[in-house]
C-alpha cells in the first residue's frame, strides 16, 4: 500500500473521490437573502446562480464566487417552515449561520456507496438532484457515532465542470 505520508494510504484519495471544497453554505432568515447578497457583493463577490429549490430542501439560494477563484459561498433562505434550513434557524434562536460545508466528488454514487459501506450516517436514501444541475447527498453531523463531525456535509457531483466550481 503506497502512502502520501506514513499515515495516509493514497488509495483513499480515489475511493470516495473527494476533490475539493465546493462551497460553504450560510443560512439566513426569511426575507434577508437579497440584503445578504448585496453585502457579499460589497466585498467583491459575484453572484453566479440563483434558484428556488423545492422537494425536501425548500430554499431560495444564491451562489457567490469569491474573487476569481473557484471558492463559492452559498446563501440559503428557507421558503417554508418545513425547510431543514428553517428548522436549523429555529434551533439557533432565529439566527442564521453556518449551514453546511459541501465537498466536490467525482461521482456522487461512488462516494455514497463507499461512505454507506463504511458505516457513515447518510441523510438521503440515495444521491439526488441538487441545484444547478448537480447530484448531491448529505452526511449527518453525527455521521460516525464514535467520532461525530459536528457539521453537516454535502457531497456534490457537477457533471458540467469536471474539476472547476462553475
In short:
With 166 residues, the protein is α+β, with helices and mostly antiparallel strands. It is built from four helices and ten strands; from the N terminus they run ββαβαβββαβαβββ.
Describe the overall structure.
- The protein has 166 residues and is an alpha+beta fold.
- It has a single domain (16-116, 127-157), classed as 2,3-Dihydroxybiphenyl 1,2-Dioxygenase, domain 1 (Roll).
- Helix content is 19%, strand content 35%.
- The strands form two sheets. The protein has an eight-stranded mixed sheet.
- The radius of gyration is 16 Å and the shape is globular.
- The N and C termini lie far apart (35 Å).
- The relative contact order is 0.19.
- The mean pLDDT is 89.
Amino acid at each position: 500500500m503506497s502512502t502520501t505520508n506514513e499515515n495516509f494510504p493514497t488509495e483513499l484519495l480515489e475511493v470516495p473521490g473527494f476533490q475539493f471544497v465546493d462551497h460553504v453554505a450560510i443560512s439566513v432568515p426569511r426575507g434577508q437573502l437579497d440584503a445578504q447578497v448585496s453585502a457579499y457583493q460589497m466585498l467583491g463577490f459575484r453572484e453566479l446562480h440563483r434558484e428556488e429549490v423545492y422537494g425536501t430542501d425548500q430554499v431560495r439560494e444564491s451562489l457567490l464566487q469569491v474573487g476569481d477563484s473557484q471558492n463559492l459561498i452559498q446563501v440559503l433562505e428557507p421558503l417554508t417552515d418545513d425547510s431543514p434550513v428553517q428548522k436549523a434557524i429555529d434551533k439557533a434562536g432565529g439566527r442564521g449561520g453556518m449551514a453546511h460545508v459541501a465537498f466536490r466528488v467525482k461521482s456522487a454514487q461512488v462516494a455514497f456507496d463507499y461512505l454507506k459501506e463504511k458505516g457513515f450516517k447518510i441523510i438521503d436514501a440515495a444521491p439526488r438532484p441538487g441545484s444547478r444541475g448537480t447530484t448531491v447527498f448529505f452526511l449527518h453531523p453525527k455521521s460516525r457515532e464514535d467520532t461525530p463531525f459536528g457539521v453537516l456535509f454535502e457531497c456534490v457531483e457537477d457533471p458540467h465542470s469536471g474539476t472547476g466550481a462553475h
